[in-house]
Design goal:
The complex is a heterodimer of chains A (about 425) and B (about 170). With about 425 residues, chain A is an alpha/beta fold. Chain A has helices spanning about 5-20, 40-45, 45-50, 60-80, 95-105, 125-135, 155-160, 185-195, 215-220, 265-280, 285-305, 335-340, 360-365, 370-375, 390-410, and strands at about 25-30, 90-95, 115-120, 140-145, 165-170, 200-205, 220-225, 235-240, 310, 325-330, 345, 350, 375-380. Chain A has 2 domains: about 40-280, Aspartate Aminotransferase, domain 2 (3-Layer(aba) Sandwich); about 285-410, Aspartate Aminotransferase, domain 1. In chain A, the strands form 3 sheets. Chain A has a 7-stranded mixed β-sheet, sandwiched between helices. A 4-stranded antiparallel β-sheet of chain A has the order 9-10-13-12. Chain A is globular, with a radius of gyration of 22 Å. The longest helix of chain B is centred in the last third of the chain and has 24 residues, at about 140-165. In chain B, strand 1 and strand 2 form a beta hairpin. The two termini of chain B are about 20 Å apart. In chain B, helix 5 packs across helix 6. Classes of the chains: A alpha/beta (about 425), B alpha+beta (about 170). Chains A and B meet through helix 1, strand 4, helix 12, strand 12 and helix 13 of A and helix 1, strand 2, strand 3, helix 2 and helix 4 of B.
């Protein structure tokens, strides 16, 4: 048997990439998992690699002071977009995963062994779910709030679950897979009225720049935001920590301009994150309504053209403007992502086959989808850079791809 | 969540794009299924067997990923013209080699393809109430592996459900 070494993978991947030569169009819809950096964002970052502000922002020389000034200005922009008080509340991290871990572990670990309680929902991203499960090992109890068939959290269960021992509640503002916009303001008020000491964290990575999101208005204590989901660079995100909310470092090292994340700040990425935020909030309403229209064009187009499909998540105003998540029955998701890729449409799937752990999306299972429905699911996110022609092309490619794969499934009763 | 593209070989890509011997065979002598749709991998094998126990034609249907489709397709090509006794001897490792290797997490696709083939061969003799000497009475290691794969998928699904229910 051929050894599965690094060379084996590289050789094969070269051939996979080559198989895409001659595509007439390419449409990238996998912003969930990283993606295109907007041109203006990239341009804003470039000088900070080698022309100015390339120094360490805590050091006493010109490139260091320039970096410091740049980081402060960038953070100030984000303060404005988040509606928080000051840049001291913004902690840049290398991304959503790290910000979520900082939120969950940093706000609770000091209470380990005291039988305290953590509450999350059943549909949180894995960086919240796994961090919460790790806290169980440290003696915390963990409650997962169930969701309905559209992914909305059960507020009554939330109210019943919060007690004197509860220290942290973490519920995403917008679900990363199915786009459900949660009633976060209501959830915060329910939690705080039962126990004002509880720290409320929300992963707002899919809300920031996509729906109106204001930490002051929502009254959350901690909020995660991420750059790559708004066409900024990957490798940068932030955790908002409300003034006087007790969060501790989870990593040790040299402290720079911020208390909660040690190490040297990545100035170009911070600049890119701020620029991406600026661009996203420019003509925000117009961009969002166009994305909503393109989203619905895709959803309606697929439902009209293809039989045996199911939309995952709600329709209309309570769905994030960018999110399209559809289960295609009798069609396995990994095979579908490859078939679509060979035709220039790049998406991801909730199928077990696309994951190293061979388990289907926990979000789709939580909303009551059968395994075979989860296996045939495709996640697409439209961005402000997409146009009608892109959706037309996707709507031309998907029915053919699904049709071919359903031909291979043949008479097998799947889904 | 990890959604890294699987480093599939060119052979797999080729068979995924143009699978051979695809589709239900209405005049099949015997057919068998391995896997189940809940685990996202399911193969049906159809064999047309001559009177002197030679596989005249083999076709398949697959609900599964690219590796599943490619290994199934490869196996139908491989067994064509083979005596049932020789087809029985093919291991999933042979099959994985012939598709140019598979990522470790996809070995089960080969296991299921072989599992379906051996089930079909057993079904053939069971229908005829015959038991050739070369056909082991007990399930072979590879057949057990296919069963294990099916069981494993069920266990994983159950375990996940339990986790989802919360604590």
């Amino acid at each position: 048997m051929k050894a599965e070494g690094f060379n084996f993978m590289i050789g094969n991947i070269k051939e996979l990439i080559k198989a895409h030569e001659g595509l007439k169009r390419e449409v990238y819809l996998d912003v969930e998992n990283g993606g295109i950096v907007a041109k203006e964002v990239l341009e804003s970052m470039l000088p900070y690699f080698n022309q100015r502000g390339y120094g360490n922002p805590t050091l006493t020389h010109k490139p260091g002071w320039e970096a410091y000034e740049t980081i402060v200005e960038s953070a100030q922009k984000i303060v404005g977009f988040l509606g928080c008080k000051s840049i001291d509340e913004i902690n840049f991290t290398p991304g959503e995963t790290e910000a979520n871990n900082l939120a969950l572990l940093g706000s609770t670990l000091r209470m380990r062994g005291r039988k305290k309680k953590i509450i999350i929902s059943e549909v949180e991203p894995l960086s919240v779910t796994y961090a919460a499960e790790m806290l169980k090992e440290y003696g915390f109890s963990l409650t997962k709030i169930p969701v309905d068939s559209e992914g909305f959290i059960n507020l009554q269960k939330l109210e019943e679950s919060v007690d004197r021992d509860t220290v942290l509640v973490s519920i995403s503002t917008v679900n990363h897979e199915i786009g459900t916009i949660q009633p976060i303001k209501e959830a915060v008020s329910i939690v705080k009225s039962k126990n004002p000491e509880v720290i409320f964290h929300t992963d707002a990575s899919d809300a920031y720049g996509k729906i109106p999101f204001n930490v002051k208005d929502l009254n959350v204590d901690l909020a995660t935001i991420s750059s790559h989901k708004i066409l900024g660079p990957r490798g940068i995100g932030a955790l908002y920590v409300k003034e006087n909310v007790n969060v501790e470092r989870i990593l040790e090292g040299q402290i720079g301009t911020q208390r909660l994340w040690p190490g040297i700040e990545n100035t170009p990425l911070i600049v890119g994150f701020a620029k991406a935020s600026e661009l996203t909030f420019q003509e925000f309403e117009a961009n969002m309504s166009r994305m909503r229209r393109l989203r619905d064009k895709l959803i309606d187009g697929i439902c009209e053209r293809i039989s045996e499909v199911k939309l995952n998540g709600p329709r209309g105003e309570k769905r994030a403007p960018d999110n399209v998540n559809i289960s295609f029955l009798k069609c396995e998701g990994e095979a579908l992502t490859i078939e679509l890729s060979l035709n220039g449409v790049y998406v991801s799937s909730g199928s077990a086959c696309t994951r190293r752990i061979l388990q289907p999306s926990h979000v789709l299972v939580a909303i009551g989808r059968k395994y075979e429905e989860a296996h045939g699911s495709i996640l697409m996110k439209v961005t402000r850079l997409h146009r009608d022609e892109d959706m037309d092309y996707v709507l031309e490619v998907i029915p053919k791809a699904v049709g071919r794969l359903r031909g291979i499934t043949g008479s097998i009763e799947a889904g | 969540m990890s959604r890294a593209p699987m480093p599939y070989s060119q052979k797999i890509l080729e068979l995924f794009r143009n699978p051979k011997n695809l589709g239900r065979m209405d005049d099949a002598t015997v057919s068998a299924v391995a896997g189940n749709p809940a685990c996202g991998d399911m193969i049906t094998f159809y064999l047309k067997v001559t009177e002197d126990e030679v596989i005249e034609k083999a076709t398949f249907e697959s609900y599964g990923c690219a590796a599943n489709i490619a290994t199934s397709s490869m196996l139908t090509e491989k067994v064509k013209g083979m005596k049932l006794e020789d087809a029985w001897k093919i291991s999933w490792k042979n099959l994985v080699d012939e598709v140019g290797g598979l990522p470790t997490v996809k070995f089960h696709c080969g296991v299921l393809a072989i599992g379906a083939l051996r089930r079909a061969i057993r079904a053939y003799y069971k229908d005829r109430q015959a038991a050739p000497e070369w056909l082991p009475g007990e399930l072979t290691f590879e057949e057990k592996q296919a069963l294990e794969e099916e069981e494993l998928a069920k266990v994983l699904s159950k375990r996940m459900k339990t986790t989802e229910d919360g604590v």
